[in-house]
Amino acid sequence: MTQFFGISIDTLTPILLIVTGIIMGGTLLLALANRIFFKIGVRNVSRRRTQMGLIVFALMLSTTLLSGVLATGDVMTAAVQSVAVYNWGNIDELIEGGHGSLGTYPQWVYERVKRRSQGSSDIAAVGAVLNESGLLIADQTSRQVRSNVGALAVLPGSEAGFGGLSDVASKKPRPVSALADQTVYLNQTCATLINARPNDRLYIYSSRWPGRRYAFRVVAIVSNTSIVGDQPVVISNLATFQKIEKEQGKINRILIANRGGGGVNGVGLSDQVEDRIEKWLPRGVHVIQVKQQGVQNSQQAQEIFSRIFSLFALFALAIGLLLIFLIFVLLAAERRAEMGIARAIGVQRRHLILMYLFEGSVYDLFASLAGLLAGFGLGVVLIYLLGPLLERFNFPLKFTFQPHSLEVAYCLGVIFTFLSVALSSWLVSRMTIIEAIRDLPEPASMRLPLHEQGQRFYQLLTQLWDGMRPGRYNWRRTRRILFEYLPESLFGFLLTLLLTGLIPLLTGFLLIQSGLNTDEIIPFSSGLSLFVFGAVLLLKTLLLQCLLIFARLSRRDWSGNSQRWSAWLDAAAAALIGLSWMAYWALPFDVLQTLGLPRFQGGIEVFFVAGVMMVLGTVWAAIANARLLMAPLLALCARIPGVFVVTKLALAYPLQRRLRTGLSVVMFSLVVFAMTVMAIITNAMQSSYVDIATQTGGYDIQATAYFQNLPDLQTSLAHQGIDPASFSAIGVRNTTTLGVLQPGAPAPRWSTYPAQIVSGGFLQGYGTHLVARAQGFNNDAAVWQALQTHSNYALIDSSALPYDAGHSAVYDPTAGNANSANVPAIPPGFDPKLTFAMNGIGQGDTSFLATPLWVVGLQGKTATKITVIGVVDNSDSAHFGLYVPRAAYDPTRASIVPGSQRTPESQSYYFKVAPGHDPRTLALALGSAYLDYGLETTVLQDVIWQIRGPRILLSNVLLAVVGLILLLGVAALALTGTRAVIERRQQIGMLRALGSSRPLIQGAFLLESFLVGAAGSFFGIILGVILSRNIFAANFFEQYQTGLVFSIPWQQLALIVAISLFASFIGAVLPAWQAGRVAPAEALRYI
Amino acid sequence: MQVHRVRMIYPIRMQRLLKRSCSNRERATHTFNSLFCCLLISAFLAACVGIPDNQSSSSHLHLQPTPAAHLTYVAIGASDTFGTGTNDPATQCWPASLIKRLGPDARLINLGIPGIDAHDALNIEVPVALDSHAHLITVWLAVNDLIDKVPLASYQKDLASVLQRLQAANPQARIFVANVPDLTVLPRFAHSDKQALRSTIFAYNSVIATVVAGQHVILVDLYQTWQTLSEHPEYISADGFHPNASGYAVLAEIFYDTLQMHHL
């Protein structure tokens, strides 16, 4: 992983290490200076072992989450780089250019480069080849045909510097010099595709030599390493192809390997090597940094995964850190009575904080280390689980774990634990001793008016001055003023400004200004949220003041009512702020633009901030008004006395301790929320990339006849010795070119566009998915249904839609586009000026008016009118075309478009293999049976793996991240449930002493746990779906040409909720059962 | 203590037991809460029932409308109408130049297809022209027929059919038909038998004139009005056959002048 939250990990690590060092060093010094309190603090560790175990486990979970996520990031980075590098073997640069259709240049260029590079310390090897592409080979022995095969005619001996060629079977070296005329090696990919073996006889065809073919004998199958690569290729002696091409003494590629030992190690030297070599080259020949370009292209193409991963990592971090905070807040609350007693016997507040800090530090040291090891282990498990997947790629991926990731995970855990401990202990230390001992709620603190606070501050400064004067120096008094009274006074002053809304208002205003000036969404939206927060608090303060003035004027006694009014106003303010936050952050992200505001920018982290704000706002509004919201439930239960008592008891604690309940609900909501967002995104990725059947149209084998069209398959299959029952379905897809005119365009004219004449599974949505549909269709299924029943309906691919400047920009200014993702924008072979582009709908639109088109080519030379009702995703550039039902097509009539230079038609056959049959075996049988027709068969699953391999791998890595977060999140929820019961042993004792039965207490605890879980799940699911919808609606993924579409995986969401509730239940059931068995006297003593 | 426990566990029954009547306020609260609860349940049920089904409503298909225009002009023709020979056929073809002269509210539907002859235009271009409800139609379909040596009788029949269908479907439309210009001056025919070519052109133009007169449409006599072509070889594109952007601009002027002569 190279970046963490947009900051380079190299920059972040030293900062985190320094902060951690300061914290640990400071804690150590404090421990040495306060040994007694260190001993008292640490005593709790051994005294309450169950509690310690739970805390250590929770902290460990957090660190595991962090280190696990970072380890996954490292795996992803390594995977992306490996894909790019593996394809180029040991080649770092190529020298190309030259003349003619092959781009050849004299062989002496190679001799010169080789001679001069011997003195260069950066260049490890130089090789020369004549490279060809687009060959068709027919293996006469295996009876298979394959198109688009490359030829690598290598200058003998020049491959040695790149590691040489090695036999796949025997692993022995296979030098090119051993190849005689009319003999070749095949690389592993090519051999697999045509089922070739040594001594097979091949014919090689090329459109460059029409009417000619060359016969070769396969000498050996060589591995895809060295200079070979994983594209299908035949390797021959340079002289062989020089003779075929009549290019004696010419080459078209010089291969360069940098020093560094292959992989990405030599990429850093590419610039230097290029500068050096360019000086040695004649005009018209140039250096291409292929490996560096490969790595960059691969990273750009897979960039969306790193962004999604960043979002997931942020959620994981938030869950981990919230867990730490929650654990220590609960611990501090549990210790309140104990701390009260300590304070009563003369312990200072700072001593309490120190004790708590020491205890927390000990937990942290143990837990973070264990968590790190667990995270590291998870990374190893991930690689192990991905093993079968990687075998499909045929490239090795090792577990790489950057030491920096380890350090970042550890430091973040330590820093946040320290901050949580410090904050929660400081909050608890500011207790009223009497109330703390009796474990009663803290009374509302009386805040002095601002002018009185000013006076107090002035008095403190005067006293400080007096205490520091020579002769009257009083260190004890000065220290107390400096470190206790003054900070407290200052804090009180700031708190007053905060609670009256002035600080939030001012900060919000400044942030809004900053956001507007920089067009950044996060400062603007955060500022707006703070502004609302401040404005509502100010309004509340003003209302309270008005009520007081009114009471004074009317001379009524409002002493009893004021507290009630204040509570009402607090609840109303919380509801107003919380719901405003929720509503604002739940708005689609483009809505601000429609309100006349500028189009803001922001990375994917904006969705994280939005999610957290939505959860916080909703839970705050709900918890502040929990009493009101729960009243109907209580009223409903009032009719059933037994249930009423359990419900009342279950609600008593959550309604009383709303901060702790709120934190638990936030925790639950955040876990379910994160899981919902992740489930929706990974579900989209899985169905787009991993679900092979969806992408292959339900068919298993594709076949294309290169020499002549196949006869009627139903009769000829049996004739060829293949049982027609081996196939459950056979489909035909014609690809042709149509003349297209859109009458609704501003200036209609004829242009050309490819057409896919489809039937069967293709008409049911297999292999394609829609990114937009015409108004009047409620869902995609309706579009597919209409396409089956109306032959004049059609679909068009998304590449035919123009980019709308107003729509195409996504929130993230660094987002890639079609060009940067190396995606062709128009169908291959088409002239951009003559290619059809649809009007009235732009890229990113999801709804449009059904668009009539006139087309020529479906019914021969007759114009027919069709209506486009949907847009097919073509983000992978594999779905160009107008998709027209076969019923609209007349294959018997001439379909050439007047003026079109394109091939009139090509036909592909699709076979769905019957259950129990092997697609690969049948593909080979088909190829063999129809060899005379030049039938090339392809197992579609293999093609999908080849094209989508990296994305499938990364999708599965992200799925693993989701699984990891789910696992740890669920453990966190179970832990929260357990802690909620354990900390209340004293209350349980009290209830038991009052006569509550064991089942009543157990039932109440379980119900409480369920209610917290249900509320959290409800908020999490709803808000998660809203945020996911916004992520997809903001066109975030489409900009990366990912083809991801929004759909809600209800089953998965239900499973997540069920697992979360179950975890919470399991977490609560054991302590609840134990709680019921606690003897009242023992519980009341609280040991 | 016992009473307290019983009250805790059985509150309602206890209230009756102790014969404590509920106050009005408590009763109202209970009623309100029960109502609120019922409302919540009803709302939930209504929401569940109200979830839209997945059925299509394709009968309510909203079609993309045709842009409104003061004058809709349809150009029927072949590669010359399409704009072959220019760098940007869409903007440099002669109908595009002509539409600029016809005013800002005029809309062009260019049906020109390279290589098309009159017979194919009948099935490809005419249906689209009929669908567009044009106010002005230009037809220039002769050169490909001439080059492809389509028999004159067939050509006459096809051209007449084109015009008949256009007139029958849209009697209000003004139709202009262009004839064959003097192709003998083009570089492509530099080595051809010019006399034979000229006589073929005459024959075609004669047929066009006959059909135009018979259908009561207007002739754009390119042969006569574009005689200056021989003096301007710069009007011809690199292929030696099609005009270039300058040539198309001049052609547009000739069409515009004819339209002006007929008060359009």
UniProtKB/TrEMBL annotation, chain A:
<feature type="transmembrane region" description="Helical">
    <location>
        <begin position="633"/>
        <end position="655"/>
    </location>
</feature>
<dbReference type="InterPro" id="IPR050250">
    <property type="entry name" value="Macrolide_Exporter_MacB"/>
</dbReference>
<feature type="transmembrane region" description="Helical">
    <location>
        <begin position="661"/>
        <end position="681"/>
    </location>
</feature>
<feature type="transmembrane region" description="Helical">
    <location>
        <begin position="308"/>
        <end position="333"/>
    </location>
</feature>
<feature type="transmembrane region" description="Helical">
    <location>
        <begin position="1010"/>
        <end position="1032"/>
    </location>
</feature>
<feature type="domain" description="ABC3 transporter permease C-terminal">
    <location>
        <begin position="961"/>
        <end position="1078"/>
    </location>
</feature>
<keyword id="KW-0812">Transmembrane</keyword>
<comment type="similarity">
    <text>Belongs to the ABC-4 integral membrane protein family.</text>
</comment>
<feature type="transmembrane region" description="Helical">
    <location>
        <begin position="354"/>
        <end position="387"/>
    </location>
</feature>
<protein>
    <recommendedName>
        <fullName>ABC3 transporter permease C-terminal domain-containing protein</fullName>
    </recommendedName>
</protein>
<feature type="transmembrane region" description="Helical">
    <location>
        <begin position="565"/>
        <end position="586"/>
    </location>
</feature>
<keyword id="KW-1003">Cell membrane</keyword>
<feature type="domain" description="ABC3 transporter permease C-terminal">
    <location>
        <begin position="311"/>
        <end position="432"/>
    </location>
</feature>
<feature type="transmembrane region" description="Helical">
    <location>
        <begin position="407"/>
        <end position="428"/>
    </location>
</feature>
<dbReference type="GO" id="GO:0005886">
    <property type="term" value="C:plasma membrane"/>
</dbReference>
<feature type="transmembrane region" description="Helical">
    <location>
        <begin position="54"/>
        <end position="73"/>
    </location>
</feature>
<feature type="transmembrane region" description="Helical">
    <location>
        <begin position="953"/>
        <end position="975"/>
    </location>
</feature>
<feature type="transmembrane region" description="Helical">
    <location>
        <begin position="1053"/>
        <end position="1073"/>
    </location>
</feature>
<feature type="transmembrane region" description="Helical">
    <location>
        <begin position="532"/>
        <end position="553"/>
    </location>
</feature>
<feature type="transmembrane region" description="Helical">
    <location>
        <begin position="606"/>
        <end position="626"/>
    </location>
</feature>
<dbReference type="InterPro" id="IPR003838">
    <property type="entry name" value="ABC3_permease_C"/>
</dbReference>
<dbReference type="GO" id="GO:0022857">
    <property type="term" value="F:transmembrane transporter activity"/>
</dbReference>
<feature type="transmembrane region" description="Helical">
    <location>
        <begin position="12"/>
        <end position="33"/>
    </location>
</feature>
<keyword id="KW-1133">Transmembrane helix</keyword>
<dbReference type="Pfam" id="PF02687">
    <property type="entry name" value="FtsX"/>
</dbReference>
<keyword id="KW-0472">Membrane</keyword>
<feature type="transmembrane region" description="Helical">
    <location>
        <begin position="490"/>
        <end position="512"/>
    </location>
</feature>
